[in-house]
Specification:
mainly alpha, 5 helices, elongated
Length: 155
């Protein structure tokens, strides 16, 4: 025979509710969501494949980040060359740093991209960080092509 619990005083609960839990959800996933996106074009598939490749091959990500930093230094030296022949810096932050001292501009530019690269490496298990790495590579490659076009056009 079941013994009925009688409430004592103001306490109206009949036992500990925590023992009656059937299931406790513990999510152990980190980083990539395994679900497929509902929609997306061809570019989404290419970006997804590139990000998954970077996630699975840390050596490739390391090479990508080294390339980003090399392109950043190349951009700095090509900008110095362009400023020497009379061009103007388009970035207002870098323009003010170049006006004060090219050394400070170089330190700021190198340090900021290096810090971004270290952050990408630290958070490499997340899709957004790997997407940022690809974005940095595309942006610095575009700036490099812009400098090469400028050099070819004005020489």
């Amino acid at each position: 025979m079941d013994e009925e619990l009688v409430p004592v005083g103001d306490e109206r609960r009949c036992g500990d509710r925590r023992t009656r839990r059937i299931y406790v959800f513990r999510d152990k996933r980190t980083g990539f969501d395994r679900r497929e996106p509902a929609c997306g074009g061809r570019g989404t598939g290419v970006l997804r494949a590139a990000v998954v490749s970077l996630r699975d091959n840390p050596g490739t990500l390391r090479v990508l980040l080294v390339a980003v930093n090399a392109l950043n230094l190349t951009d700095f030296f090509l900008t110095l060359n362009a400023l020497h022949v009379g061009a103007a810096e388009a970035n207002p932050i870098m323009r003010s740093l170049f006006e004060s001292s090219p050394v400070w501009a170089g330190i700021f530019k190198t340090a900021s991209v290096l810090v971004a690269s270290v952050l990408v490496w630290q958070f490499r298990r997340y899709r957004k960080a790997l997407s940022v790495a690809l974005l940095m590579l595309v942006l610095f490659a575009g700036v490099f092509v812009y400098h090469m076009f400028g050099l070819a056009l004005f020489r």
